[in-house]
């Protein structure tokens, strides 16, 4: 539910952002009435990616507040909306490491990868739900589904209805957030944290007994021995962490950063790609609400045919293929997409049956228990930094190379074709950093973090010291 909510709140904005141009940028003085300027479009779509790390309560409050961004002045509405979308990003960002760590620590080594991937696959259903909600709301407000010719007056006459549409779509994100919060407060702390960090073996055994519905005994002596080990005491900014996990952190942050540049640049701006490839009619041939319907229908079809299947292919094959092979394959086909075929369905399928899923799974497995969530959050933040680069950078780079074709003096870009070539280069570099990804298939969390090896080494040293002559 956490990831379902994250995806709905993140991507529903792309369904309704064109409405803002229709409603708030209709003045005849504007160079292209009914169209958001590039800087405003980038801010509305990307600002939630700038805020990281809180919880479902914040998602509830900010989903409601986003829909209540009222003002008589267009700039005030957009500014208020961007502020609450930024705050929403704190809740979404905090939920990424929590969801991954909770599932990783509760799962066993045989099914851990598939279960973590299943958590992440809910992102696809969140995107799909956003499209369905937008379809329903648009249908409720535009009964005729006719497409009258667009004009500034027509846009203005639709403003009250269109204003309801985007607010309802955004505020529906409150419902799954409330459910997420309710179930989270009823969930006990993970046993590994309780035992290894809080050092409460009895509570850990009690919690796991309730979860697994079996009777477990607290192993106080084993816990005391483990918590005294050096491997469980070092922090993030220590030589021990640098020696054991610095390369791992570079691997998780770099691949997630590069992946999100490509993924978010094309996901949040699908609506523009739909127009470019002729999937939806030109804006001047339909009213504002009908445009929302067409965009939502296209995104729903994409989610059903590509996004959701891609995630579930990862769930099905990750235990057999491993993360390394899936991630390398995904980056390869994303590169091919950008350089050769430019097929949106192929790109999204292999992004999700590829690095978009594995970059979430790997950080949840390869770091010490006391640093799992911290390192996953750092990796998530790196990914969202890449998303910001992708959203803002792609929007400006995709502007026409010819300065005479840009709106109101906006700086010329390199064009859509060259932008896709650049994204292909980024995906190719992602393939290179994937070579640093450790394969964790079939290994326990303790084996992956090196804690078992260090414990065995300590036991051998103690045995040698005992056997040595006095």
Automatic annotation (TrEMBL):
Its main location: membrane. Pfam families: Sugar_tr. The chain crosses the membrane at residues 76-93, 114-141, 164-183, 381-399, 419-437. Keywords: Membrane, Phosphate transport, Symport, Transmembrane, Transmembrane helix, Transport. Residues 445-470 are annotated as: Disordered. Residues 459-470 have a biased composition (Low complexity). One of its GO terms (biological process) is arbuscular mycorrhizal association. GO terms for cellular component: membrane. It is found in: Membrane. The keyword Transmembrane helix applies. One of its GO terms (molecular function) is symporter activity. It is a multi-pass membrane protein. SUPFAM superfamilies: MFS general substrate transporter. Belongs to the major facilitator superfamily. Phosphate:H(+) symporter (TC 2.A.1.9) family. This is Inorganic phosphate transporter 1-4-like. It comes from Pyrus ussuriensis x Pyrus communis. The lineage of its organism: Eukaryota, Viridiplantae, Streptophyta, Embryophyta, Tracheophyta.
């Amino acid at each position: 539910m956490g990831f379902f909510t994250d995806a709905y709140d993140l991507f529903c904005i792309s369904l309704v952002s064109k409405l803002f141009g229709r409603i708030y940028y209709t003045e005849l003085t504007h160079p292209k009435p009914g169209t958001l300027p590039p800087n405003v479009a980038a801010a509305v779509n990307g600002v939630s990616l700038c805020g990281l790390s809180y919880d479902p309560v914040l998602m509830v409050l900010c989903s409601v507040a986003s829909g209540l961004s009222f003002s008589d002045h267009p700039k005030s509405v957009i500014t208020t909306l961007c502020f609450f979308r930024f705050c929403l990003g704190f809740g979404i960002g905090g939920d990424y490491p929590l969801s991954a760590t909770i599932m990783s620590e509760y799962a066993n080594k045989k099914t851990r990868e598939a279960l973590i991937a299943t958590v992440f696959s809910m992102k696809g259903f969140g995107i799909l739900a956003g499209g369905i909600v937008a379809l329903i709301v648009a249908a409720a407000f535009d009964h005729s589904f006719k497409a009258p010719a667009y004009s500034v007056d027509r846009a203005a006459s639709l403003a009250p209805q269109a204003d309801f549409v985007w607010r309802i779509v955004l505020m529906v994100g409150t419902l799954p957030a409330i459910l997420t919060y309710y179930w989270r407060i009823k969930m006990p702390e993970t046993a590994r944290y309780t035992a290894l960090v809080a050092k409460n073996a009895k509570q850990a055994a009690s919690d796991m007994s309730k979860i697994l519905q079996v009777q477990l005994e607290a192993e106080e002596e084993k816990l005391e021995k483990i918590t005294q080990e050096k491997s469980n005491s070092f922090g993030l900014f220590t030589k021990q962490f640098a020696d054991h996990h610095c390369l791992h952190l570079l691997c998780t942050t770099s691949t997630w950063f590069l992946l999100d540049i490509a993924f978010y640049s094309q996901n949040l701006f699908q609506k523009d790609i739909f127009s470019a490839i002729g999937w939806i009619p030109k804006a001047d041939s339909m009213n504002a609400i009908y445009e929302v319907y067409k965009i939502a229908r296209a995104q729903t079809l994409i989610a059903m045919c590509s996004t959701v299947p891609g995630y579930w292919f990862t769930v099905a094959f990750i235990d057999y293929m491993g993360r390394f092979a899936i991630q390398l394959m995904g980056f390869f086909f994303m590169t091919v997409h950008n350089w050769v075929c430019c097929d949106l369905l192929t790109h999204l399928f292999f992004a999700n049956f590829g690095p978009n899923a594995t970059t979430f799974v790997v950080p949840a497995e390869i770091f010490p228990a006391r640093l799992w969530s911290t390192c996953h959050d750092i990796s998530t933040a790196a990914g969202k930094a890449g998303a910001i680069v992708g959203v803002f950078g792609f929007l400006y780079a995709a502007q026409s190379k010819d300065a005479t074709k840009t709106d109101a003096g906006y700086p010329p870009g390199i064009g859509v074709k060259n932008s896709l070539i650049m994204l292909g280069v980024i995906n190719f570099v992602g393939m290179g950093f994937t070579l640093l990804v450790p394969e964790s298939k079939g290994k326990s969390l303790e084996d992956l973090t090196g804690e078992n090896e260090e414990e065995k080494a300590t036991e051998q040293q103690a045995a040698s010291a005992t056997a040595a002559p006095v």
